[in-house]
Prior knowledge:
Elements: H1 18-31, H2 44-51, H3 55-67, E1 71-73, E2 79-81, H4 86-99, H5 101-125, H6 128-142, H7 150-167, H8 171-195, H9 199-217, H10 221-242, H11 253-256
Helix pairs in contact: 1-3, 2-3, 4-5, 4-8, 5-7, 5-8, 5-9, 5-10, 6-7, 6-9, 7-8, 8-10, 9-10
The protein binds zinc ion.
Amino acid sequence: MEEVLPYRAVATPPRTRLSDSIAEQLEQLIVDGTLAPGHALPGERVLAQKFGVSRPSLREALLRLEARGLLKVARGGGFAVTDVTAPTITDPLVHLLQRHAHAEEDVIELRHGLEVLAAQHAAARATRADRATLKRRFEALAAPRARRDALEVAQADAEFHLAVAEASHNVALIHVMHGLHNLLRTSMRHVWEMLYADPARVRELSEQHRALLKAVLAGDAQAAGEAAHRHLQYVRECVHARAPAKAKRPKRAASAG
Ligand SMILES: [Zn+2]
């Protein structure tokens, strides 16, 4: 008698569609952090040429990634990489931050931990392109310019830190850091407004950024982590000093003990 086995015939897998391969390649670029949140893709004509595919195949791939929430339609009509984690971490937090100053300090405390991690990984993983971006953004931040407004400096500061995060090639880290920086935009502007009146502190921050850049470029993970730690420690002290006394965090049981 023939034995009944739990196996079924295997169907020949359908041929992979071109648009699947395109979507896969784009997803890979997002997941390894090459295409960071907010990154605008080139126009369809240019992109189709680079992939060596027809525009309808490309369009199908783009629409599929949009449907999955990885891409969104950017201003001007093209596609840009979505900030994947940002909406989930920002919406409830924005509300808390507006009402409780110490919640803002908690966000910076989180940023502190993540920046140390980002700097360590960036030192170990930065590509040549990452290094070039880091240098460019550092120069943009350090460039002494008269009549520079605090918002512009805060923006350049964020761009530099995001370049470090992007060089970590950890997609979770990159997206969370983008979310945090969006969240902190207003508070960093206020910090820079306060600091700008004090050239010694501006120099101090500039030296901290330089030390971070140098360690990452040298591939020294430990020094990079330490530089990020010193910088965020300083930023936290600045933000804390700014917070009105009554808004400061109530002592927690552990530290009061
Ligand atoms: Zn900074």
